[in-house]
């Protein structure tokens, strides 16, 4: 157990150092770029600049964490092999799978950490970052956050709007259609704005121009109502908020948004795919641990280990680009979203397991 703790602690320290170094390099390069092409167009204090980058840390950490785990695994395994510790453990009768237990535990730790950051910290930090960027840096009004145009469907009615103020829950440039049955249009309502009444739980249109159609006589009658209550009883889905990208939301937030969007008749196939990838992507940390075991330790004292390290890095890149391609196919409907999210994980874990078994038998 003591040797396992030693291996795990060495691996953990290496990954954390690489992650911290990568974050520093990223923000230094980003600041050098944005100070010339972004901040120079605005009057921004040092405090705002600090907060601008501070609230980006969780999101960037999630992106860099799997590669830090990968590079850390290569370095840790390389150093253990170089000092003969791996050979000593094998001579004591331990298999590669048993030697790898502390590495796998660290991989689980970073998998869980990434998921927790994504669920608990990232939604809040992304909101703060967007506010800092839009309001404090670009001097835009905080309340003006509009969604794209969309349609909301209810029983026998359809409501269309051009813009939506999510914070005030107000609609703008509204059209409301009511049918007598599936083929007969009964009423059309036009309004410049509307609001969501919390007391009755429905959308209410202001200064509505109501046109009623008499199906029997084909004569229309128009009247103006100060307030017109619709039967649409749900808010526009937040998934349409231009600033609310999938990676800025927790799994449960995204799932709720998808349910609301589907109830409204909105196509959110890309969000559904993102939901599955939200569960599968943290496991890249664990998969990359398995990758380092067969490649970084293969014939420790021979030149082939360098080839193994290169193959390890290339495999990681193939994993990421493969996921991008699979996501694209899933959004187009050519591939099941669940399969697209997990197929690369399954292939990598199977390949790593076979190579580890081969390594055990060969040495």
Give an account of the 3D structure:
The protein is of the alpha+beta class and 363 residues long. The chain has helices spanning 2-37, 46-54, 57-82, 85-91, 96-99, 101-137, 251-263, 269-280, 284-296, 304-332, 337-362, and strands spanning 150-154, 157-165, 170-179, 185-197, 202-213, 220-229. The chain has a six-stranded antiparallel sheet with strand order 1-2-3-4-5-6, with no helix packed on it. Helix 1 (2-37) runs parallel beside helix 6. The longest helix is centred in the first third of the chain and has 37 residues, at 101-137. It is elongated. The two termini are 24 Å apart. The chain crosses the membrane at residues 12-32, 52-80, 101-122, 275-297, 306-326, 338-356. It is found in: Cell membrane. Its main location: membrane.
Short structural summary:
The chain crosses the membrane at residues 12-32, 52-80, 101-122, 275-297, 306-326, 338-356. One of its GO terms (cellular component) is ATP-binding cassette (ABC) transporter complex. With 363 residues, the protein is an alpha+beta fold.
**Domains, number:** 2
State which percent range the strand residues make up: 15-25%
What general form does the structure show?
elongated
Q: In angstroms, what separates the terminal alpha carbons?
A: 24 Å
Strands in their spatial order, largest beta sheet? 1-2-3-4-5-6
Would you tell me the overall average pLDDT? 81
Rg result = 28 Å
pLDDT below 50 for ≥5 consecutive residues: which ranges? 142-149, 237-243
Structural class: alpha+beta
The major β-sheet equals:
6 strands, antiparallel
**Total count of strands:** 6
């Amino acid at each position: 157990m003591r040797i396992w703790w030693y291996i795990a602690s060495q691996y953990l320290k290496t990954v954390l150092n690489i992650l911290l170094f990568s974050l520093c390099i990223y923000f230094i390069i980003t600041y050098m770029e944005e100070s010339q092409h972004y901040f120079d167009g605005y009057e921004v204090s040092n405090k705002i600049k600090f907060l601008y980058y501070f609230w980006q840390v969780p999101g960037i950490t999630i992106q860099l964490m799997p590669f830090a785990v990968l590079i850390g695994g290569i370095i840790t395994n390389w150093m253990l092999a170089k000092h003969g510790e791996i050979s000593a453990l094998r001579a004591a009768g331990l298999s590669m799978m048993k030697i790898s237990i502390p590495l796998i535990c660290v991989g689980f730790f970073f998998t869980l950490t990434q998921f927790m950051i994504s669920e608990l910290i990232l939604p809040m930090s992304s909101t703060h970052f967007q506010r800092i960027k839009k309001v404090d840096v670009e001097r835009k009004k905080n309340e003006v956050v509009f969604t794209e145009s969309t349609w909301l469907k209810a029983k026998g009615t359809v409501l269309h709007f051009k813009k939506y103020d999510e914070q005030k829950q107000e609609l703008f440039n509204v059209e409301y259609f009511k049918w007598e049955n599936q083929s007969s249009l009964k009423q059309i309502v036009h309004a410049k704005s509307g609001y969501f009444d919390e007391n009755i739980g429905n959308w209410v249109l202001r200064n509505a121009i109501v046109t009623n159609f008499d199906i029997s006589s084909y004569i229309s009658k128009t009247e103006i109502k100060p307030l017109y209550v619709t039967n649409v009883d749900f808010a526009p889905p937040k998934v349409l908020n231009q600033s609310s990208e999938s990676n800025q939301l927790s799994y449960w937030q995204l799932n709720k948004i998808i349910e609301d969007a589907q109830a409204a008749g909105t196509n959110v196939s890309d969000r559904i795919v993102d939901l599955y990838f939200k569960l599968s992507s943290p496991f890249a940390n664990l998969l990359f641990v398995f990758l380092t075991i067969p490649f970084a330790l293969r014939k420790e004292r021979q030149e082939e280990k360098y080839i193994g390290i290169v193959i390890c890095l290339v495999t990681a890149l193939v994993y990421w680009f493969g996921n991008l391609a699979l996501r694209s196919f899933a959004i187009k409907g050519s591939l099941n979203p669940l399969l697209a999210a997990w197929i690369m994980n399954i292939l990598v874990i199977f390949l790593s397991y076979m190579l580890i078994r081969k390594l055990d038998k060969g040495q």
